[in-house]
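Render this sequence as a predicted structure.
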Amino acid sequence: MLLFPALCFGQTVYNDPETVSYNWYIQANWDSLLTNRNKLLNNGNDYYFMRYRLGEAAYRTGKYRQAATDFARAAALNSNDSFSTSFYAHSLLLAGRFSEAILIGKNLRKQKSTNAQYYKSVQLNSMYCEYGNKFSSDKNISGNLSFFQVATGLQVLPSANLFVAFSSLVNSNYYSEVKQKIYFTKLKLQLKNAWSLEPYFNYIDASVGFYPTKDYPFTYSYYLQNQVVGLNVLKSFSKWDINFGGTYSNLSNNTQIQANTGLTFYPKANNSLFAALQLTYHNENDGSNNSQNLLIRPSAGFKLAKNLWFTSEFYYGNAYNFVENSGYLVNNAVDLTKWRLNSGLQYYPSKMFSFFLTYQHEARQEKLFSSPYSLNSIFIGIRYNPWSR
């Protein structure tokens, strides 16, 4: 007797998805719609009203990435409907996929939607400032390191966001003092169907002042001008993000070529929880031989409380002169980076302000004598979005 009603329930969904899905929708039975999503879409039942109901079910239960997928399909099936387009754009915003939301906002403005003002390009214009120190465990090998950065992000077109940053770094060791300036530019091009391209460029201007020694009792300086250029390709799905790309650089006047790929999983179909794995093949040619490494970087993050997130990542690779985060982070220290652990808090008290606090522990090995030491770092940052609403 218990199996009989279960069988009837399954046959009802299979034979009459329109009536069943409509009843669940008007009853706000979102869980039933989501649980039976695949059954409802079977046998050619992928039409506007079905996608709209499934999209709203995902939206009402906080599965914003899934909602974006279904509303995108609904908007494609009925391009004149501003309701599905508005839900689509807002789902993208709540999922943290801001560039896509701005791009979809163009359609809302064409449809003269009352929500169009929330998706103007200026919403993504921002200013950013970061400061931090790295504290060395052995001052006889390396002194402390100070870091400062200012940056701005400009939505130059609905489909193009330009990020420009200037960084200053000062570090000393037992034989020299390093002063470095980095000029970074990245252009994010948002394409259709959740694809995006990120070309980036870094110019690094470094001066190394060597201390006098017994054999050479004079101070002298050595100058480096290095470049990094690369491209990253990204694609978003309901519960997954994938990326792949490559980088060319001449850090320390050697030649480095990197190929990277990564996968990010959002089990709740929103940004409240994620796990990711990034793999990078790294090849460096110093003129006499090649060194090859596989760099591994798993990471995870979750929502701690309202407007507060925690993220952590681990790096392992035993490499010199490598580039991370679409060119944003350039590791050109002369000493070997063996492994690194980052943990951070991100706090969003309002749509205009964001605050960031990061702790980092890095295990290094001095290059000439292979002496181990570590760096413990604290970084604080603030982002201001004056036009955000």
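Summary. Residues 37 and 54 are 7 Å apart (CA to CA). DSSP finds eight helices and 16 strands in the chain.
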